[in-house]
Amino acid sequence: MAVLRHLVPELRLFHGEGSLAALPGELARLGSTRAVVVCGASLARDAGALQLVQAALGERCAGVLACVRAHSPLDAVQAAADGLHALRADAVVAVGGGSAVVTARGASILLAEQADARQLCTQRGADGMLRSPRLLEPKLPQLVVPTTPTTATMKAGSALLDPADGGRLALFDPKTRAKAVFVHPTLLQTPPCTLVLSATLNTLAMAMEGLMSLRGDPFSDGLLVHATRLIVQGLQGLGQGEGAAVRNDLMFASLLCGHGTDYTGAGIAIPLGHAISARFHVDNGLANAIVLPHVVRFNAEAAVAGLEQLAVAFGQPARGAAAAEAVVQGMDRLFAQLAIARRLRDIGVTRDALSALAEVSMDDWFVRDNPRPVRDAADLLAVLEAAY
Question: Are residue 240 and residue 374 in the same domain, yes or no?
């Protein structure tokens, strides 16, 4: 019998209309008197939403940094780090989607480590192995008020966009995990449906790759199967007068997925999606949705057990070799209902860019854990060509 270790990081989750009332107590528990809100410009313009958070913080609010941009580019993260220093922050409250959460974490790392992000990120050594430097300096406590169903809420990694080459700078520090998460129904209604859809598609890719992984356990499988069910059900109602219940369910799916994938490997859909979105300025979720069916087929023989669970979650029970096609058919129906792009060429990706996309994706940490070993960039290129 295999040895099982399932160590759960601290999580303090507050949900519902009164969730933000817990903010002062959580800051007091952390010894914070100067919390700084990190958010995007659109949320900062929504006076009602921002006021909810500021009112809850009261005198503990030391300021607002509305510098978050999509994909967390390095210059925006550095601006946030400079702002945290200028405001003498002793805690960070990230309000928004994945970019807000990642920007807050990344800024806290840059502020504490006082080094270039390119020196702090995961790098490939001379032996070809990827390694993450240990980031030893204490970090500002992170509190998260999520508005979109992003797995970033639960994570300790921060993937920043390097504007110099469009690559990802992956910073990993367990000390930047959220100390507390506050899910407020009013704030869940602030982002447009398109952002909720993109974040949910990204979460779906994470859940599916987690279940296809060869490193899961019964706890993570349970979390990820239920997350996938919630996503499939929620996406069918998204944008059709869905009300608060659907967004609430999708938020919980992202929290379940964020937790569950801490115990699994990943795969190649996320790296390919990151490379495509960074170079062609499309949402990660949409890029992931386009490559996912082809990633499933690539992994079909290596991930039968996970694909059988996914087939059930998609309402397409199948066993053995039939599971992969059952999952693909489930995705096809769901994505057709959502009327999203299905081919890379439909979102502006050019054929002559495919080789470069495959090459840059090889430097992503997730590739090493794909259930079917990736021999070289040619394997990734074949998946991209199938998706083109």
Answer: yes
Residue 128 resides in a domain: no
Among residues 213, 175, 171, the alpha carbon closest in space to that of 369 is found at 213
Digit-coded pLDDT (tens) for 262-315 = 999 899 999 999 999 988 989 999 999 999 999 999 999 999 999 999 999 999
Mean pLDDT throughout 319-329? 97
Closest CA to 197 of 99, 279, 288: 288
Instruction: Give the pLDDT confidence of 177-198 residue by residue, as tens digits.
Output: 999 999 999 999 999 999 999 9
- The whole-angstrom separation of Cα 37 and Cα 229 is 33
Report yes or no on 308 lying in a domain.
yes
Q: How far apart are CA 145 and CA 222, in angstroms?
A: 25
Q: Which of 173, 188, 203 is the last residue of a domain?
A: 188
User: In this structure, what token pair is assigned to residue 135?
Assistant: 């980031």
Integer-rounded Cα radius of gyration of the chain = 20
* CATH value at residue 80: 3.40.50.1970
Q: What is the DSSP string of 89-116?
A: -SEEEEEESHHHHHHHHHHHHHHHH-S-
Q: Return the closest-CA partner of residue 58 out of 24, 16, 94, 20.
A: 24
The total number of structural domains that make up the chain: 2
> Phi and psi of 183, rounded to 5°?
-105, 110
Residue 148 and residue 218 in one domain? no
Task: Supply the pLDDT for residue 127.
Answer: 80
The count of other CB atoms within 10 Å of the CB of residue 10 is: 8
CA 256 to mean position of chain CA atoms: 12
Q: What is the pLDDT of residues 70-85, one digit of tens each?
A: 999 999 999 999 999 9
Q: What are the contacts of 347-352 at 24+ separation with CB within 8 A?
A: 347/276, 347/280, 347/282, 347/286, 347/287, 347/290, 348/280, 348/282, 349/276, 349/280, 349/388, 351/388
Helices 47-57 and 23-30, packing angle to 10 deg: 50
Sign of CA dihedral 148, 363, 307, 341: positive
> What does pTM read for this prediction?
0.95
